[in-house]
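Archive maintenance. Older records in this collection stored only the sequence; we are now back-filling the structure field for every entry so that each record is complete. The fields below show one back-filled record exactly as it appears after the update. Entries are processed alphabetically, and Peptidase C1A papain C-terminal domain-containing protein is next in the queue.

ARCHIVE ENTRY
Title: Peptidase C1A papain C-terminal domain-containing protein
Organism field: Amphimedon queenslandica
Length field: 708
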Amino acid sequence: MAEPENTEKTPMLKTYFKAGASDASQELQPRPKLQQRIKNRRFITLVISILVLLAAIVIVAVVLAVVLSRDSSSSSSTSEESLVDSVDSEELLQALRDLQNTSINNSRSVLNGYDKSAEYVFNELEDNGYSPYKQYFTVPVFENVRPGGALFKIVVDGHEFVFAEASQFNVMTYSGSCDDCTGDLVSVMKEEDNNYGCDGDLDNVEDSIVLMTYNDEKGCSLYFKAENALNGGAKAVIFGRDEGDNEGPPTSRVYDKTASGEIRTVDIPAIGVTAAVASQLMNYNAPDPVQVSISTYTRVTEAVTYNVFAKTESGNNESVIVASPNYIRGIYNGSSADEEILAASTTIQDLFIQYFENNGLAYDIVPFTGRSDYGPFMDVNIPAGGLFTGAGSLKTKEQYEAYGGLVNAPLDPCYHKFCDNIQNIAADVFEDMTRAAAYVIETLFEQDDLREYLENVLLVRAEPLDTEGLFAEEWRLWKGEHKITYQSSEEEGKRYLIWQDNMKYINEHNAKNLSFTLRMNQFGDLTSEEYSSIYTCHIVSNENSDEVIGQKYNPPRDAELPYSIDWRKKNVVTYVKSQGEYRCHSCYAFSTVGSIESHHAISTGSRVRLSEQNVIDCSTGYGNAGCNGGNYRNTFKYILENGGGIDTQNYYPYKAMDKTCRYNSAKIGATISGVYYIQSKSESDLKSAVGLVGPVIVSIDHRHKSFQ
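Back-filled structure field:
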């Protein structure tokens, strides 16, 4: 292993090691002179994160090296030509060509191109009047020893199915290595499966291959899911995308970084599969488990690498420029940052908004989720901000209307791929984004007290937003909690006023000390009319409203009712579901299906998830109107006249839109033989049914504001 070039210059060195290894970390403190300069409030450190993928992500240091080359000695704002005006698109592209020529196989790895790219940026900074220095540290380096040579296959009823690497599965970064790990498939894709496999060790996965959700917002991170599987004795882990996630098979890092900088990995194979493959695995895995075989050939070693730092005598801000071909102009949502850096990050966001609005350019506010190019700074409370033109996510119809390009296509089709090179550049947006960054950098550069400016300046927007008004702090916290962003300052101003009104209503209600209290939820920026039109149900009236479906429930005489009952605690109620945000008014389907799920569990002792989409698509001939509404009377009539069964959710997943009926009697998850109805307005009959029989369907008038 190579040693640092000069440990005397090293501000900090951290040794990263795998889980279970001894603590070999060490730190070298900055030299006293450098430490003093860092503490000086007049200096801001420009942190350069070196990335070798040239087309999607270009670091601002490279842009500065080109733009400032015209007058590298200038440090004041008195130059005749502003930094924005000095941006030249051809010079920018030539700098990218030079940088690309330093890479090997267009790779980010420290083993084959990173150091050359870092050296390029270091030399550019030095040639343009900066005083760069290097921060050395060791990192774990993951290598897929046999690219394209991994194996993933299953055996179903004696038939072998082999999946295709890259299109159906990928080896996850930091995966362990195994030549033919074979075992039965165990799925923990659901919340009821030990909270997606996150609550303690798994006691039913020994010698198995475990299928887990790739969605790290469900339960816990990929690392802790894999660690729990490993502790339970699993041989390998498969991370599957959720239904509706149309991205390709993931390759994300399965690792954990502790507060001390330790990197921990899990020594079992981990592969990622598409949503289609994950659904296929779950369907095949019943009633008998599928046999799965996985072979991966990987290794994790350590390498010495470095960051590049450059000092300026006034404010520069860490930013990232992007130029995806199917782009959006995205601004990171600084108003959702943690409280310690909220004010400064919001100011940076507002500067970008100011530039785009002043120049008549469309923009999107995008989530500030802690991506690798800025997340480490936020982790240690360094304010951040920047631009984003897209990665692997698909362009929406609204974005297509604002920017053109291809709808439902990746914003950057070459994101983290070999084709991510100089040909993968949208030159016009590259110049737009570079000029925006230059505007922000120059504005910050001109401030006498950058810290005071970042933390206290409230910029004037095209449509002023009174963020210092009533409930201002609660508003910021609410947006961060629910990860809510807005397309423009005008839209945010409108939503803030609605949210204020709803907050006042909540406080006024709770002050009355009634039998129930209210609190703010994720729907707080909607009016009651908007909430009703988007999220609630349309009950369709029957022409033959007197038609009776089922038998009347007659409470048994002298039956002793329980004082209270919670059917959830008896494990017969499936988890709370959402009918979605797509104006599909399908509550009639959810209520009917939910009641059948519960009574099936009471009768058989086994919970099953049934298909609401089956009801939406197939009951229109019985008076329901699909996503335009329906009622449970029509729904029960359809089910009873159709043999009494409903397909499973796994076979017939929810789409929140009208589709063609594809009911399959071979995929039925539960059946009913009859229905009981409760006498209207009889609370005693309702109480008896709930206490003695099980969950019932009720309709509630949701139009009152308190139900939002």
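Update note: The two ends are 61 Å apart (CA to CA). The chain has three domains: 7-142+304-456, 146-296, 551-707.
Entry marked complete.
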